[in-house]
Amino acid sequence: MASKHFIFLGPEPDYFNTFDDQQLKPQLDSQKLGAMHLGASQNAMDPMPVWDGNGGMILSAVRSGGSGTVSSTVYVVPSELAKLIAPYHLRIEVLFDFPNSLNADSTENPETWALALNLKRGTAVDEGTDDTGTNVDNPVGPNCQFHPKVSSFKGVRLTGTEPEGGNPVLDPTKTYTDYRAASTAFVLGANLTRTDLKYGGTASLTLTDKDEPRPQSGNLSPQDFSGTSTITGMAIGIALVNLELPGPPPPAIVRTVSVRLRSFAIWMRDTEIAQREPIVVILNPHPRPDPQVIVPLRRS
């Protein structure tokens, strides 16, 4: 048992972090992967996480007008690359709640944004695309996408999976502000399988409230990590992505997105991990974040 607030409905994870330690040290770490690392995209403000007295860590990503897509991240970056390459099968889960997105004037952010669960090249820093438009990090993993308006493919839904359009919204009657008001928690999970250095698999998005819709799921397109050059590093973890609106650059306005991270878990096995439903379950009710630690909107 890693924490009195969580139980495991399946095998105990090899790595488990409840974000209660400000050094980001895990509560379980059988493979000695080490503490998690904060990062951000090159054009983002430095991540400024806030630890909530009610449990977890509030992570935010801030974008000012014209700065493009930005991300704030928290990744496991093992010192020995083989620790992530060796297992044939990985399962990863992040449990989070209180999605929030506002403009600097406290009006609702009209943009789409997402929380991503990734296995990628490199470090905790998201490198983005190069001059050819190729994503340098080559990430594989699902997204929980948020949008303030609800339509067939706008709202809260699983993306990053096949088919390209992803899933329709979880509930056409609810925006993410409704989930926030109900203190609903989300579990984004992925089962990844390695063939040589190509990783693919399945993903799911589940809500913890028993009355909510059944989980969404989809397949993850395999990504080839071998390439033409030697991999110098790999990371596995969470990216909070504040997306750029299409079209001309928006006015110079600061927009902030945030979530409260409750737990992150990794299972590393030589045999397939059959379980697709969430393994980590949070026992305590999901208390609202302490008002004293709500992340303020930060101006550039």
For the largest beta-sheet, the strand count, sense and barrel status come to: 9 strands, antiparallel
* Overall body shape: globular
Number of helices: 2
Strand/helix succession: EEEEEEEHEEEEHEEEEEE
Helix content estimate = under 10%
- CATH architecture label: Sandwich
- The total beta strand count reads 17
Reported by name, the CATH topology is Jelly Rolls
Rg: 18 Å
Describe this structure in words.
3% of the residues lie in helices and 39% in strands. It is mostly beta strands. It has a single domain (6-285), classed as Jelly Rolls (Sandwich). The protein is globular. The relative contact order is 0.27. The model is unreliable at 294-300 (pLDDT under 50).
Layout of helices and strands:
Blueprint: E1 6-8, E2 15-17, E3 28-29, E4 36-40, E5 50-51, E6 57-63, E7 70-76, H1 82-85, E8 89-103, E9 113-121, E10 143-146, E11 157-159, H2 176-181, E12 185-195, E13 198-207, E14 216-224, E15 234-242, E16 255-269, E17 280-282
Antiparallel strand pairs: 1-17, 2-3, 2-16, 4-7, 5-6, 6-16, 7-15, 8-12, 8-16, 9-10, 9-15, 10-11, 12-13, 13-14
